Structure prediction request, 192 residues.
Amino acid sequence: MKYLIAGLGNMDKDYFGTRHNIGFDVVDEMATKLQASFSTGSLAHFAQSSYKGRKLILIKPTTYMNLSGKAIKYWMTKENITLDHLFVILDDLNLPYGKIRIRPNGSDGGHNGLKDIQQNLESNQYARLRVGIGNTFSKGKQVDFVLGKWNQDELKHFDKIKTLAAEASLSFCFAGLQNTMNIFNAKSIEEL
Prediction:
């Protein structure tokens, strides 16, 4: 079985270390756990590995986040991966910092990266893991917050969040979506 794990983010170095790039950070954590390294491919940096008998393809689209759908569609077609074996990791400012939420499908929730994926795939029937970045910003400062760097308090728990999200992503591949949701939607970083 083959799985595509897509972390959403922006490739420009100005975005590294920002809240909006948590998807990239999680797939980087997965690659480290799997001892896989990224190479440059069409529309994405990619890493391949095996885990518990599954072939995993990790991608970080090189398109801007809001155009991620083209890269995901390309890699799904190239690797012959079905929607039920796609897992997308992204930031969510509607979730408290450090909380993760896994869903089997759903709307884009105002996230332009998801909106583009749904337009390109002509479906919203794919699993996604939303990583809470919180919403501690002043009125009118949403963009600055999302594109801002993690503060010192957030960085104290950042490794735990990446670990939790990476473990949930791997669980999706070997334990299935429902089991993964049952286990990880209830977990918090305090348990790690």
